[in-house]
Design a protein that fits this description.
This protein is an alpha/beta fold. The chain folds into four domains: 3-167, Beta-Lactamase (2-Layer Sandwich), CATH 3.30.450; 182-203 and 324-408, 3-Layer(bba) Sandwich (Glucose Oxidase, domain 1), CATH 3.50.30.10; 215-319, Orthogonal Bundle (Enzyme I, Chain A, domain 2), CATH 1.10.274; 437-747, Alpha-Beta Barrel (TIM Barrel). Helix content is 45%, strand content 16%. The strands form three sheets. Strands 15, 16, 17, 18, 19, 20, 21, 22 and 23 form a nine-stranded mixed β-sheet that branches. Strands 7-14-13-9-10-11-12-8 form an eight-stranded mixed β-sheet. Strand 19 (561-566), helix 19 and strand 20 form a beta-alpha-beta unit. The chain binds phosphoenolpyruvate (PEP) and magnesium ion (MG). Magnesium ion binds at residues 607, 628, 630-631.
Length: 748
């Protein structure tokens, strides 16, 4: 096919297909008619439709030209024969001599041996493989590029218009399951497991009309849509002109695509062949996806991802479909998104059972929120956002970072067993709620919880925590479009203390900056944000926010004890200056006649190795110290806590890191300053036992970890474990983990 004639032929064929699909009657008859029309229009003796019978099997479901007896009998494995290869690769095979092709499989029951020319194209929707459309002819010839293109357009319409699953019923009944199980391996952002149903943050756009009757009109619609897309991107860029950074880079790439002539030209060609504007966008998107699957080059993959995003935006413009499709949230919703902001995630609140992000990172704002909501989170989960559909069954394993989408029954059963076992254990832990964490040797360790939201406070009672050892104050800043007001913060902090019902709460001042950019803050383009202008550094340079937060804390703590902790202190003078600012605020409050807290305890977070070696006077100047093990460990080993390639590389239980911790414990004891540990390791039973064995007497962790840690502590002799740890630190192997784990197994 070529030129205007081919275009009008193609349009005629698509319209015939549409009419056939809309006609009443048995679905098999409709499918038979379709193959007849296609063969007739393209001028081949054979046209066949193979559909997935199950994830691994394709079945011949209709044919014009092959033997009718073979329909619903001829089957191929995925990857087997030319048809199986088309399905596996997601791209066409075009050959004048099929038997000479690698992987050719002769199927005698079909009588196909007399048709050497073969053109097969995948029938696929974005993110969904449905089957293969094949034409064959007796005359040995290569099909032209235009013919190939035309057949892809036909396949696109088939994929969109037909609920093809119904056709594949065959003799033994039942629709084909073309939605396959899929496994995604991401990174654990928050531990825990959940079973539920997919709830897409950005639901897929549904193309209801793939055939365009009037190419002029469809072209005009496409061009208007693209113009609108461009102007939206320009507006976004203008908004971001305050600062550069990754957002701007991505948008710049988007703009590049949106202005790309070849992208637009291909879609216009699709329209000329009879597709509607939205079907043309989706066709190009589907093909970009198939290329994405095959692309090894990470840069190219990224760009194809961008094109994918752009296509979604354009589809939304063309169809007018927004995020809210009116669909009802399924039971036990598990949010699936490419990425999500903290405010949007908070909007879903406690409805969600889990969150899976295609991108994201362990330290992202969304991860902080998911941690506060105490729901399992997997980040970096690859293409999940384009594979999942609303309502799909999904299992999230936040411990391993593995996500099962539409799992097989055996996988689902194993997963349910795991969840049931965890629930059983939680029940056991609940019995310990009111009991102290006292080891068999009589050593008592205080177990506190970490929090960051008002909504976390009920866990104080539920978990049996003795107080809040770390209240992260970032969220209230991250989720607003402007700096929160002092009065609002004071109210929130007061409520937190009220809800703690007299149990202590340690408020950490804002740990923000660099990667945790506030929406209203000028983004800094820092090469190494974790080591950049953050936390107390920013607070000391931009004193207005720190002062305001301290005032809010003082107001909230009026008439009761208040604990404030400064994050990321790397040098004694930073703590001294922060404390001086606090003293000024206390004085100010006093002068204004505001009631003050009955006692104000001021601590520092020990998160950089430098401060572990600070002079004794620093230790003595603090009312308390808390080891931020997450940061301390990343700086000790020079291993980025958010970089998957290195973050698990070094073990907390290595003798050198434990030696550092031991030094900190000893120096704090000498100075008489209370010490706690509030990094993630505090909530891992083996690590927690080791920390206690090193002499730490207060651990602060996620509420869900308190039960397991307490359960273990109450069964072990910490003085014995201390001896083992001390000997290992002196003279141990790369990690003491095997020895400690073995000891705990024997003694706990
Ligand atoms: C830490 O670094 O261990 C810590 C508790 O602080 P954050 O995780 O908020 O950096
Ligand atoms: Mg930290």
């Amino acid at each position: 096919m070529s030129g205007d004639l081919a275009e009008s032929e193609s349009r005629k064929l698509l319209q015939r297909l549409r009419d056939t699909l809309a006609a009443p009657g048995a679905s098999q008859d409709r499918l038979d008619n379709i193959t007849h029309h296609i063969a007739d229009s393209i001028g081949t003796e054979v046209c066949s439709i193979y559909l997935f019978r199950d994830p691994q099997t394709l079945e011949l479901c209709a044919t014009e030209g092959l033997r009718p007896e073979s329909v619903h009998h001829t089957r191929l494995r995925l990857g087997e024969g030319l048809v199986g290869r088309v399905a596996r690769m997601g791209q066409p095979i075009n050959t004048a001599n099929a038997p000479a092709e690698p992987g050719f499989r002769f199927m005698p029951e079909t009588g196909e041996e007399v048709y050497p020319s073969f053109l097969g194209v995948p029938i696929q929707r974005v993110g969904e493989k449905l089957g293969v459309l094949v034409v064959q002819s007796r005359q040995s010839r290569q099909f032209t590029e235009d013919e190939c293109y035309g057949l892809e357009v036909v396949a696109m319409v088939l994929a969109e218009m037909a609920e093809l699953g119904a056709f594949a019923g065959g003799n033994d009944g039942g629709p084909a399951t073309h939605r396959f199980p899929a496994v995604f391996r991401g990174t654990s952002g928050q531990e825990g497991s959940a079973e539920g149903h997919v709830w897409l943050h950005e639901p897929r756009v549904v193309v209801t009309n793939p055939v365009g009757d009037d190419p002029q009109r469809e072209r005009a619609r496409l061009n208007e849509g693209v113009a609108m897309l461009r102007s939206r991107l320009d507006a976004l860029m203008a908004d971001l002109s305050l600062g550069a950074g990754d957002h701007a880079d991505v948008l710049e790439t988007f703009r590049m695509f949106a202005n790309s002539r070849s992208w637009l030209r291909r879609m216009e060609e699709d329209i000329d062949l009879g597709l509607s504007a939205e079907a043309a966008v989706e066709k190009e998107q589907g093909q970009a996806r198939a290329r994405l699957e095959r692309a090894a080059d990470p840069y190219l993959r990224e760009r194809l991802h961008d094109l994918d995003d752009l296509s979604n935006r354009l589809l939304r413009i063309l169809t007018g479909q927004g995020r809210d499709t009116g669909a009802e949230m399924p039971e036990n919703p598990i949010l699936v998104a490419r990425n999500i902001g903290p405010a949007e995630l908070l909007d879903y609140g406690r409805k969600l059972r889990g969150v899976v992000l295609a991108e994201g990172s362990v330290g992202s704002h969304a991860a902080i929120v998911a941690r506060s909501l105490a729901i399992p989170l997997v980040v970096n989960a690859g293409r999940i956002a384009s594979e999942a559909l609303n309502g799909d069954p999904i299992f999230v394993d936040g411990d391993t970072g593995i996500v099962h989408l539409r799992p097989e029954e055996s996988v689902a059963a194993a997963f349910r067993d795991k969840i049931a076992m965890q629930a059983e254990a939680q029940k056991r832990y609940a019995d310990l709620r009111g009991l102290p964490a006292v080891a068999t040797c009589g050593t008592r360790v205080e177990l506190f919880m970490n929090a960051g939201l008002m909504a976390d406070l009920p866990s104080l009672e539920g978990s049996g925590a003795e107080g809040v050892g770390l209240f992260r104050t970032e969220l209230q800043f991250l989720t607003r479009t402007r700096v929160p007001k002092r009065g609002d913060l004071a109210r929130l902090y007061r409520k937190v203390m009220d809800n703690a019902k007299g149990k202590p709460v340690v408020f950490r001042t804002l740990d923000i900056g660099s990667d945790k950019v506030l929406p209203y803050m000028k983004p800094q383009d820092e090469p190494n944000p974790a080591m950049g202008w953050r936390a107390i550094r920013l607070g000391l340079d931009k004193r207005g926010v720190l002062r305001m937060q301290l005032q809010a804390l003082l107001r909230a703590g009026a008439g009761r004890p208040l604990s404030i902790m400064f994050p990321f202190v790397a040098e004694p003078s930073e703590f001294a200056r922060a404390r001086a600012i606090l003293d000024e605020q206390i004085e100010r409050e006093r002068m204004h006649g505001h009631e003050l807290p009955t006692e104000i305890r001021v601590g520092a977070m020990l998160e950089t190795p430098s401060i572990a070696f600070a002079p004794r006077s620093f230790f003595q100047s603090c009312d308390f110290l808390s080891i931020g093990g997450n940061d301390l460990k990343q700086f000790f080993f020079a291993a980025d806590r958010e970089n998957e390639a290195v973050r698990r590389r070094y073990d907390t239980l290595s003798p050198s890191f434990l030696f550092l911790l031991k030094q900190i414990v000893d120096r704090s004891n000498e100075a008489g300053v209370p010490l706690s540990f509030c990094g993630e390791d505090a909530g891992r039973p083996i690590e927690a036992a080791t920390l206690a064995a090193l002499g730490l007497r207060r651990l602060s962790m996620r509420p869900a970890s308190i039960g397991p840690v307490k359960h273990l502590f109450r069964r072990i002799d910490l003085s014995e474990l201390s001896k083992l740890v001390a000997a290992g630190v002196e003279d141990g192997a790369a990690s003491l983990r095997p020895e400690i784990t073995d000891w705990l197994a024997r003694n706990g």
